[in-house]
Amino acid sequence: MLSGRRLDLLDPSPLDIEIEDIAHGLARVARWNGQTAGDHAFSVAQHSVLVERLTGELSPRLTREARLMALLHDASEYVVGYLISPFKAAVGLDYKDFELRLLAAIHRRFGLPAPAPPALLALFKKADRRAAYFEATQLAGFSTAEARRFFGAPSSRTPRLVPLPPAEAQRLFLERFSRLVA
């Protein structure tokens, strides 16, 4: 990692995880495998901030800890990259197990339960699907009908999504992280 940490991918230690490495990596990983409109890719860092915000809209009384887990819901992608859901399914459970072990180490690094409680995971998934709907219709060329078919119709207000350069996406992610851990 750029921090100088060496992360054992088969046995990740929370001691080798730094939020700056996570933010740096996620800001450079493209959602939708880069197949989005705009001068820059819509990064996993931006997606993570969006999911955290949508999670808070779905459940306004969430603790900071729960919102931090929402922000970090895709944090393992700083190492493993972004794979679209159909490809993850094709790769199989070994990939998912690997991803979950890394996410558990990330949670332990920041004092969060590993794994997250099932009710929170369901909430994050709901927010993640809403984010996917907005990303699909605003950035990835989906029609509204097509996005509804794949992701459902969100009932929240529509955020305006603008893909940011990596440095700005990284800053946005780190700022949100700092507010949640303060």
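Second entry:
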Amino acid sequence: MVIRKFERRVESLVEGTFARLFRTGVRPVEVARRLTRDMEQGRTVGVSGATMAPNDFEVVLSSDDYAEFAEVRAALARELLLLVIEKSQDEGYEFLGPVDVRFARDPDRAKGTFEIEARLREGQARGGAGVLTLPSGEMRTLGAMVVTVGRTDDCEVVIADPNISRRHAEIQPDNDGWVVVDLGSTNGTKVNGRRSQRHRLRHGDVLGFGEAIVKFHNQ
């Protein structure tokens, strides 16, 4: 399931570019399958009894493949990061720190081949990619821009729910993370079931906008 969702997202993002990139022999879906396999093989049981999965991934390409992927490396890294988060949600995995997926090159590696180095790495989840899981199941990454949540089409996150105000709330970058701020909505904004005017988001927070539930992950 997570692989199929990954394929659909990648195809929609860089549809024209990938017809050319497939000639390299390294297909994004192959990288995705190897990454999820390495997550499963690298998982371990933590002190609390939770299943901990690798959260630091380096995809090593040949110099030629690395250069040919230049146009889409950032988009691919973002989609692979979302894949890791989706896989962790499906399997109930937890992480020791923020998730990071990046590409590297090895001049001695043959074109059309790759390897993935997967590690469990401790650290505070900060900066990097904040991710919202929307009621539709769609995942949206956060960055340095303010994201407005509401019912109208001019919002960055549009949720068609009559209980949500036209411009209901904002998710604002703040220092090394994000805060959710209610914009005076009629039905309010809830964080983990409690009404809140302003709240610094933490990994795993559940946001309520009207009747809609949005999950936040800081990876």
